[in-house]
């Protein structure tokens, strides 16, 4: 039996911030599948927030809520200013990226390389906490390069706790800043879920969520089960939720004890159509929205022709809602044939 949803942590289930993937169209689509999942923006640098086209970069539809912004940076003053802007835009949480291993973030002295500077991370969190009233969280790795994961994560946790961090989201892998590409860093360093459970056991009053390699809700629920009487507060799925978005239909009933917003993937598309229509009216191309939906029917008859139609016809300038409906009809036709 699922406990009453009011007792759940805000971080009980979330979809990870993913560059080039979790844009506003993706988040609007994911919201049709789950009313309770916490959704994150792609990482946005403080420089972009402070000096770039803000509405284009961090604007979002209120229907996406609950939605959080992830910031990249290492200057406490800039992070505080960017966090204040994010709060004014209506974000319900500000998250600091201490986990991205790309060359670009290393050059900018943020992301995973900040694991080596826990004191600075604490200063950044303190500055953001002083600037906003919404929760300030940190997403990190268990260490980088030759760091001892026990010492590295404990040091970071101590500093951000002292600064008043509201939650810690831990990708249960090291990041290797030398020798591995960002893509390789998502798969090659071994997972150590036990390390995340140990940091929670040592800090029982600090909300801690686990991330990294979680392939489905069953795996996530297994990690949320108490160990020695202490349970993690949340699970964050990334690529699995993006590649197999239909799994999000199970989030509300399985993790929050509530009905899903829609009954099935077909109903999810119907619910998403008004959003698509509005964006098309604004001059947006269909593919900007449907690229996030390619995996929706994975494992069902008709999934391949559906993907092919959206990947080919859906990218043409004249593509519209009729194109999406044609793709869905291919699934319906295959399903009917399979049932005959």
Helices and strands in order, then pairings?
Layout: E1 13-15, H1 24-33, E2 38-45, H2 46-51, H3 54-58, E3 67-72, H4 76-89, E4 94-98, H5 103-107, H6 118-131, E5 136-140, H7 149-162, E6 167-171, H8 182-185, H9 193-202, E7 208-211, H10 217-224, E8 234-237, H11 239-243, H12 251-255, H13 265-281, H14 286-290, H15 303-312, H16 321-339
Parallel strand pairs: 1-2, 1-8, 2-3, 3-4, 4-5, 5-6, 6-7, 7-8
The radius of gyration over CA amounts to 20 Å
What structural category do the secondary elements indicate? Answer: alpha/beta
Query: What's the N-to-C terminus distance?
Result: 37 Å
Q: Which fold name fills CATH's third level, the topology of the largest domain?
A: TIM Barrel
Q: Largest beta sheet, briefly?
A: 8 strands, parallel, barrel
| Helicity range | 40-55%
Based on the coordinates given, report the CATH architecture of the largest domain. Answer: Alpha-Beta Barrel
* Main sheet strand line-up: 1-2-3-4-5-6-7-8
Range of strand content: 5-15%
Helix tally?
16
Order of helices and strands: EHEHHEHEHHEHEHHEHEHHHHHH
Domains, number: 2
Number of strands: 8
Shape field? globular
Please mark out the parts with pLDDT under 50 across 5 or more consecutive residues, or reply none.
Answer: 1-5
- Mean pLDDT, as a whole number? 94
In the CATH scheme, the class of the largest domain would be Alpha Beta
- CATH homologous superfamily annotation of the largest domain: Aldolase class I
């Amino acid at each position: 039996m699922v406990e009453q949803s009011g007792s759940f942590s805000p971080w009980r289930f979330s979809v990870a911030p993913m560059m080039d993937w979790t844009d506003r169209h993706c988040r609007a689509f994911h919201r049709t599948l789950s009313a309770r999942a916490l959704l994150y923006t792609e990482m946005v640098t403080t420089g972009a927030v402070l000096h770039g086209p803000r509405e284009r970069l961090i604007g979002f539809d209120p229907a996406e809520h609950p939605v959080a912004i992830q910031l990249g940076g290492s200057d406490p003053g800039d992070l505080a200013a960017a966090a204040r802007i994010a709060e004014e835009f209506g974000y319900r949480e500000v998250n600091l990226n201490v986990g991205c291993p790309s060359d670009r973030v290393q050059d900018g002295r943020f992301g995973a390389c900040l694991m080596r500077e826990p004191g600075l991370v604490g200063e950044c969190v303190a500055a953001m906490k002083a600037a906003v009233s919404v929760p300030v969280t940190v997403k990190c790795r268990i260490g980088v390069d030759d760091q001892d994961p026990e010492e590295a994560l404990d040091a970071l946790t101590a500093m951000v706790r002292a600064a008043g961090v509201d939650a810690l989201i831990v990708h249960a892998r090291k990041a290797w800043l030398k020798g591995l590409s960002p893509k390789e860093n998502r798969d090659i360093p071994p997972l150590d879920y036990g390390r995340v459970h140990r940091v929670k056991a040592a800090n029982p009053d600090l909300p801690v969520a686990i991330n990294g390699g979680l392939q489905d809700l069953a795996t996530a629920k297994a990690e949320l089960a108490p160990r020695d009487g202490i349970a993690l507060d949340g699970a964050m799925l990334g690529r699995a939720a993006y590649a197999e978005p239909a799994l999000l239909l199970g989030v509300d009933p399985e993790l929050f004890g509530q009905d899903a917003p829609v009954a099935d993937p077909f109903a999810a598309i119907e619910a998403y159509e008004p959003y698509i229509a509005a964006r098309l009216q604004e001059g947006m191309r269909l593919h900007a929205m449907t690229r996030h939906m390619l995996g929706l029917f994975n494992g069902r008859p008709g999934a391949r022709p559906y993907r092919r139609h959206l990947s080919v016809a859906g990218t043409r300038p004249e593509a519209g809602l009729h194109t999406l409906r044609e793709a869905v009809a291919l699934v319906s036709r295959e399903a009917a044939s399979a049932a005959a």
